[in-house]
Amino acid sequence: MNYEIKELPEVRVAYLRYKGPFGPAVGEFWKEVFTPWQKSRNLLGKTTYGVAQDDPSVTPASECRYDACVEVSAEYPIVAPAKEATIAAGRYAVAKFRGTGNQVPGAWGLFFAKIQEAGIFRPALCYERYPADYAMDPETGVFEAELCIPVN
């Protein structure tokens, strides 16, 4: 898996939290909960982020937390049920992903292995970044995103 090292800026986001096993349920959360909320707040057409708060290899599946986030301006009023967070600025290894939701965990596994092998991993939150013009092919379920891992 190819990647680039990039300096990424700090981003203010509004998010909704999913709690439970990672995998297909996360995609359903985006579809059934986050996207309708995003639409109701007139936040479509903005960069979105998926932030896994826990490592599923050490956290029980029922306790794993995942935040579906949308970038918002400094002035945007964030109201419940959404919460506010900041995605930290810094150096990240960024890999392009193109595939289906079922392929995301495998892509993360390969990417983590490559970064750990290179010895440049920096302990901090990793995330998926989805472009403002994000689209999923309705027939194949294929979409594009960037996988971002913090590095030294």
Automatic annotation (TrEMBL):
Entry-linked InterPro entries: AraC_E-bd (IPR010499), GyrI-like (IPR029442), Reg_factor_effector_dom_sf (IPR011256), SmbC-like (IPR050908)
Domain of life (superkingdom): Bacteria
AraC effector-binding domain mapped to chain residues: 1-152
Coiled coil: none
PANTHER family attached to this UniProt entry: TRANSCRIPTIONAL REGULATOR YGIV-RELATED
Protein name (Swiss-Prot/TrEMBL): AraC family transcriptional regulator
Species lineage: Bacteria, Pseudomonadati, Pseudomonadota, Betaproteobacteria, Burkholderiales
